[in-house]
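This week, study the protein below.
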Amino acid sequence: MRRFAALFLLAAATLPLALAQTDKKKFATPNAKSPASETSVTINGKEIWMVYHAPSVNGRKIFGGEGALQPNGTNWRGGADQATFLHTDAELNIGGTTIPAGEYTLFFALNQGNWDLIINKQTGQWGIKRDGSANFDPANNVAKVPMKMGKTPAPVEKLKYTLSSGGGNKGTLKVEWENTSASVDFTAK
């Protein structure tokens, strides 16, 4: 009887944790051509994670001028299929803007080699209109933050996001694809 009681108490104690876990698969598009990928980091005991669809270059010009898949002066959903999704258990400070713990969609404003990260509180969005204009309501933007731009040391065939810890309460979100690298630092509370 004691063994049963102990197992019951253990199950009762862990059930809320299991129920609180978000099913990351619900943010991935089923049967998508571009596979769903994810990245995560834990800072100060709080998890921050992203789900995105990672297309490949496949010989295309991805960023920049005429003929690019993502030309200058447009907004980008940060991948293929469903727009890139961010979940944070921590309150974040990105570029001086406070982002409350919660769930967000990420977009990027591409401007002649200078990008802005757009954090939008509406989730479940698909992407960008064919003319490159936003397919999201800017009134739901929580932040628009300049990113640090760079070149990758070697070509990156498949879109890659990385969330990493910088020690203490600091972290970095980085996106790399083709020959482009863009990152933004943040702090987590």
In short: The helical segments are 2-20. DSSP finds one helix and 13 strands in the chain.
